[in-house]
Every structure is written in C-alpha cells, then in structure tokens.
Amino acid sequence: MTVTVYHNPSCGTSRSVLELVRNAGIEPEVVLYLKTPLSRDQLEAIARQDTLGARDLLRTKEKLCAELGLDKPEVTDAQILDAIAQHPTLLNRPVVVTPKGAKACRPASVVEELLP
C-alpha cells in the first residue's frame, strides 16, 4: 500500500500521524511540504479525492488565512488552492493520501480510516 504523508515535523499532530502510519507497518513517502511545496496541480489532484475538498486542505487556524480573507464562505475552491500553492503554511497538516482516499488528519486518529 502506497501512503503519502504531507508532513510538518514541527507539528505534534503531524508527528503523531506519521507514528501511527509506521506503527501500522507502513513506511510512507514523507513529503516535507514547507521545503518542497506542492504545485497547484498537485493540490487540485489531492482535493479531488472523494473524501477531501479544497476547504479541507485549508488551515483556517493560520493567521494568514484570515488576513487573505480565505475564511469567507464566498471564497472559491480555486482561490483556496491558489493561496495554498503560494503559501504552503496554509496547508492543513498533515494530509495523508492512500488508495482509500485522502484526508487532513486532524485529529491524528483520522488516519486510521485510511489504513488497512
């Protein structure tokens, strides 16, 4: 099973999710998205997963989210994805992608839905 974790090592939830995946006997592909930001196309592909949408990818607790007005209901998915592509700190971490789908795994236990 291929598992990709879009990871921020300074985030406790992200570290917990990575540990849960490894405890399930899976060594995931770990993408340090702040060092290697996702392209707009990559973000769109993740958001198109049936279990996830653009708003799910947005870290609404990030101060920049409100500063850019992304927390308003009229903001489109395209605008959200554009903003995350420009400002990787807006990605709601960690995001996990498996053959079962994709989720922003907050709380960490959400990752269990994506594992065998």
TrEMBL record:
Keywords for the protein's UniProt record, in alphabetical order: Arsenical resistance, Oxidoreductase
Q: Which GO terms describe its biological process?
A: response to arsenic-containing substance
Identify the InterPro entries for this entry: Arsenate_reductase, Arsenate_reductase-like, Thioredoxin-like_sf
Top EC class of this enzyme: oxidoreductase
Question: Mind telling me which Pfam families this protein's record contains?
Answer: ArsC
- Tell me the PROSITE patterns matching this sequence: ARSC
Which SUPFAM superfamilies has this protein been placed in?
A: Thioredoxin-like
Could you tell me what reaction this enzyme catalyses? [glutaredoxin]-dithiol + arsenate + glutathione + H(+) = glutathionyl-S-S-[glutaredoxin] + arsenite + H2O
Transmembrane regions listed in the UniProt entry:
none
Q: What is its EC number?
A: 1.20.4.1
Which GO terms label this protein's molecular function in UniProt?
arsenate reductase (glutaredoxin) activity
Family, similarity comment: Belongs to the ArsC family.
The name this protein carries in UniProt is: Arsenate reductase
Upper lineage is: Bacteria, Pseudomonadati, Pseudomonadota, Alphaproteobacteria, Acetobacterales
